[in-house]
TrEMBL record, chain A:
The keyword Membrane applies. The chain crosses the membrane at residues 27-55, 67-86, 98-120, 132-162, 190-213, 225-250, 256-279. It comes from the Bacteria. This is Branched-chain amino acid ABC transporter permease. Its main location: membrane. InterPro entries: ABC_transp_permease, BCAA_transport_permease. Belongs to the binding-protein-dependent transport system permease family. LivHM subfamily. Keywords: Amino-acid transport, Cell membrane, Membrane, Transmembrane, Transmembrane helix, Transport. It comes from Thermus tengchongensis. The keyword Cell membrane applies. Signal peptide: none annotated. GO terms for cellular component: plasma membrane.
Length: 293, 310
């Protein structure tokens, strides 16, 4: 195993971590601020991939406009879903949230199967990133660089939004104490709509950005949502940086685990999730829940 | 008494069902077992497990491995499956019950998925994603009618046991813990041990259901352990109504029959199920049991109008 090969695995792991971060960070915010367990989150990731395909008609040249359209569509769809379906169940117990979001998962899976068929849909690398890069004598897809940049840009924008804008401060406040926020006269339902729309848009972007690397199928949502939960639980429910850390950990664990223990690589993320929940249930970067009386 | 009548009806109905009907009825009974096992935790103890598939799968794999690798007769594997899943539930429950609410749910989910990943890849032991096939029980139980009676017998035993459990001091203690843990514990109830015992009993029954399902399908695959299988227990329970004793079993049966009906017409059963769940969560949160209770109440009071939805 030479250095170039290890570097390739590292980059593969980080590229995977990039899409995983985009997928999971919204789930984390939605749970942290709204207290909603969203089992449909992976479905919007899947939908993002299919929307990119639909908007570009599979043409690599249209990738960039396609990505913008996916982001806009994600915002609109997320906002609508929150308004129509999620809003009635805020104060309902978890099992109803799980069932309702599971229902959305089933509906979207079949809707996509109906519209696009059950087969794989793949997409070429966009023209600017179509040729491989050479590093230490190993060729790797230059598209990895774009993925890393995309995730870094979103992480930075999200940080700036949460810590440098008033709206972001409210979002952070919502993860701490909803009632207090309401008492201060903030329109919390509107804030929730914004958070949900943002989270769904990022998941859709993540799914779209993965498409050139991995073909989409309607069934990818059931795996994606579990991966997102792994990342979010490891990093800490409600924590943005936790989602980033969790995504990087899972990305690297996958990339190197498959080299060292190909038979058990699939079990590693779950083992890590179990371990974190046992030792630090609120996640690596999460906060222990305040004691409520 | 009403339960006894129901079982008598199911008993007499057997020969009239035909090959396909018997299979479907057996599967409904098995799903009923599984959902009622889930509801023991959910309704009595107030624990939302999202890892019930772990025990369903462990029971199924215990049966399958003993039949195919060790050559045990199918019937002898049932106690073994019960024991194996109880043991798995003891370990997982011991570690999970300490966590509160959403963390408990997430940890049970993680354990079940961990087992799924292991079963999926450990080709030497579990056959990996090829599963274990060719599991037709030898002798009479390979026929549909005797197998249906076996399933019905197991179902009746478990239902009787659960009915007794709900009325026992143990059942009262569980509901006390569910409603107010601190207050229940201050009366001297050991919360952890009670919840752990409930978890083990629920796991053991789920494992029994898994073993029966494997024999019915003649095969066991890793998807017995997959998280959507855990979701099926929740769906059946809420569909039938968790607050009604037989609700989860009725919900499971309705779920299966609807699937058969819809799948005969279209391949888009998941879409239909999604729509059903959506309407149920938004408009009939107490499930079929709640609808019937409400209808019964209105029947006896003669009030049918009004704002409340039935």
């Amino acid at each position: 195993m030479d250095l170039g090969f290890l570097l390739l695995q590292l980059l593969t792991g980080l590229a995977y971590a990039s899409t995983l971060f985009l997928l999971s960070v919204g789930l984390s915010l939605i749970f942290g601020a709204m207290g909603i367990v969203n089992f449909a989150h992976g479905s919007f990731y899947m939908l993002g991939a299919y929307l990119l395909y639909a908007f570009t008609r599979g043409q690599a040249e249209a990738f960039w406009q396609g990505l913008l359209w996916v982001m806009a569509a994600g915002l609109v769809i997320g906002t609508l879903v929150e308004r129509v379906l999620i809003r009635p169940i805020y104060r309902r117990p978890e099992e109803y949230q799980i069932l309702l979001t599971y229902a959305i998962l089933l509906l979207l899976e079949d809707l996509v199967r109906f519209l696009f068929g059950a087969g794989y849909r793949s997409f070429p690398f966009p023209p600017a990133f179509s040729s491989p890069l050479l590093l230490l004598g190993t060729a790797f897809p230059s598209y990895y660089v774009f993925l890393l940049g995309l995730a870094a840009a979103f992480a930075f924008l999200l940080w700036a939004f949460l810590h440098r804008t008033r709206l972001g401060t409210w979002v952070r406040a919502a993860t701490q104490d909803r009632e207090m926020l309401e008492a201060l006269g903030i329109n919390v339902p509107l804030l929730y709509t914004a958070i949900f729309g943002l989270g769904i848009a990022m998941a859709a972007i993540g799914g779209a950005a993965l498409l050139p690397l991995q073909a989409a199928t309607p069934g990818m949502a059931v795996d994606a949502v579990i991966n997102a939960f792994i990342v979010v639980v490891i990093g800490g429910l409600g924590s943005v940086w936790g989602a980033l850390l969790g995504a990087v950990l899972i990305g690297l664990l996958q990339a190197f685990g498959i080299l060292l223990f190909p038979e058990m690589a699939m079990a590693f993320p779950f083992a890590l999730m179990v371990l974190v929940l046992l030792l630090r249930p609120w996640g690596l970067l999460g906060r222990p829940p305040a004691v409520r009386t | 008494m009403r339960l006894a009548l129901l079982f008598l009806l199911l008993l007499v109905l057997g020969p009239a069902l035909g090959e396909y009907g018997l299979k479907l009825a057996s599967e409904a009974l098995i799903l009923g077992l599984y959902a009622m096992a889930f509801n023991l935790l959910f309704h009595q103890a107030g624990l939302l497990s999202f890892g019930q598939a772990a025990f369903f799968g462990v029971g199924a794999y215990a049966m399958a491995l003993l039949v195919s690798r060790a050559g045990w007769p199918f019937l002898a594997t049932l106690p073994a499956a019960l024991l194996a899943s109880a043991l798995a539930a003891l370990v997982i429950g011991f570690l999970s019950i300490r966590l509160s609410r959403i963390y408990f749910t997430m940890l049970t989910l993680a354990f079940a998925q961990l087992l799924y990943a292991v079963a999926h890849k450990w080709y030497a032991f579990t056959g990996g994603d090829n599963g274990i096939t060719d599991l037709r029980p030898s002798g009479l139980l390979g026929e549909s009618l005797p197998f249906y009676y076996l399933t019905l017998g197991v179902f009746a035993l478990v239902v009787g046991f659960l009915a007794g459990l709900a009325r026992s001091p143990f059942g009262y203690a569980l509901r006390g813990l569910r409603d107010n843990r601190a207050r229940a514990e201050s009366t001297g109830i050991d919360g952890f041990r009670h919840l752990l015992l409930a978890f083990v009993v629920s796991g053991a029954i789920s494992g029994l259901a898994g073993a029966l399902q494997g024999a019915l399908q003649r095969s066991v695959f890793p998807d017995y352990l997959f998280w959507t299988r855990s979701a099926e227990a929740i769906i059946s329970t809420i569909l039938g109504g968790s607050g009604t004793f037989l609700g989860p079993a009725v919900g499971g049966a309705v779920f299966l029959f609807l699937r058969v009906l819809v799948q005969a017409k279209t391949e888009y059963w998941p879409f239909f199920l999604g729509l059903l769940l959506l309407l149920m969560v938004l408009f009939f949160p107490r499930g079929l049991g709640g609808i019937f209770t409400e209808a019964g109440r209105r029947w006896s009071t003669g009030v049918w109008g009004g704002a409340a939805r039935g």
